[in-house]
Write a structure and sequence with these properties.
Layout lengths: L1 H25 L9 H33 L2 H8 L8 H13 L1
Helix pairs in contact: 1-2
Keywords: Membrane, Transmembrane, Transmembrane helix
């Protein structure tokens, strides 16, 4: 779940970075090489801010989704091994082990 929230934050922040970079370069002001560090700094600042906010917000949203999932489905979401066995198979295994 943490990797998914990181990927969401990374995508959002890269989108903001390139958007700010392109808007800064294509703006109405005449572009010179001396403006590029300022444009890059603005784009990097936007990247960092949106990465942090994206990480926080996506973590909150994903936790809300996971906590709204019922316990039976939660094991599948987390990759639990116990859900691979149905209740009938579990009961059969317990009966076989009890016979031994």
């Amino acid at each position: 779940m943490a990797t998914l929230s990181r990927k969401i934050a990374q995508f959002l922040s890269l989108f903001v970075f390139f958007t700010l970079l392109i808007v800064g370069i294509v703006s109405d002001e005449s572009f010179s090489l001396s403006h590029f560090p300022i444009i890059g700094l603005k784009a990097f600042t936007g990247y960092v801010i949106f990465w942090l906010f994206g990480l926080i917000i996506s973590d909150i949203v994903l936790k809300a989704i996971v906590t709204s999932v019922e316990d039976k489905d939660l094991d599948k979401w987390e990759g639990g091994m116990l859900d691979n066995f149905s209740k009938d198979k579990n009961e059969e295994l317990q009966r076989v082990q009890a016979r031994k």
